[in-house]
What we know:
Layout lengths: L11 E8 L3 E10 L2 E10 L8 H15 L10 E6 L5 E6 L6 H7 L4 H20 L2 E2 L8 E3 L5 E3 L6 E2 L11 E2 L10 H5 L2 E2 L1 H18 L12 H9 L13 H10 L10 H5 L2 H4 L19
Antiparallel strand pairs: 1-2, 2-3, 3-5, 4-5, 6-9, 7-8, 10-11
Helix pairs in contact: 3-5
Amino acid sequence: RADTANLKEYGECYRRLGEGSTAVVMITRKLEGKGEKLYAIKQFRKRQRSESEKDYMKKLTSEFCISSTFSHPNVVETIDLVLDDRKRYSTVMEYCPGGDLFGCIMAECMTEREKACCFKQMIQGLAYLHSVGVAHRDIKPENLLLTADGTVKITDFGVSDVFRFAWESKGHKSRGLMGSEPYIAPEAFENKEYWGAVADVWSSGIVLYCLWMQGLIWHRAKKSDHAYACYLRQYSTQQFELLSKLPTGPRRLLYAILDPNPSTRISCQDILNDPWVQSIDVCVHGIGANNQPHHHI
């Protein structure tokens, strides 16, 4: 549009956070009164010669149009779509200074209380997305950001799918193999179409395992993967060795989440109603449900 804002309205770039195949992420700093406001900026790559202007703009705007409608404490706020001085598009988002959950997991410094809190916050965010008809399709620790006080926020809606519009009651299945292989649900490998929200639940289970065990349970949910094949054989008895070291609450829940049959897999709302999840104390701005300090390392 002619009135598209300029990136400079959100301050000056002072640090680069990372680079992916489709965009560069950086931080801008804007002076406001005696203080400053930080923003995360996702700057998209230039249009490739092989793609049309229409296809390029569709990719740019679809992610923004989906994510800019969200309003939930466990979902990153998308603020604006702007142009820089070189006419490249960028998405302006809230900045989460705590980094991503992957970094926290690798640091191996989280208590069980923190792990449970992060898991429940992720499920709260996912339940909200599914309630408004959106499947994320790339849930993994790298796409779960943390604020300074430990609030978990889902980010990166580049492969998200609107599976149900506001005027629909049932919705439609998703297509295409999206996300990172260790987190992809088995039905996405096996079928051309699958329910995106149900596949998100599976991914959340892999994240739960990563939180507790600081590693992946298998490389991909396919029968050709040895660990997954063992899981399928032992699923009915719930005696899978790699889950045996988990505490009773998360172990029992994981068998319901990692149900190989998508039609009987638990939903996000069901997860939130689980007794163990109900017992998890989720902090808000560093304060727990009992009004006691609840700090994340």
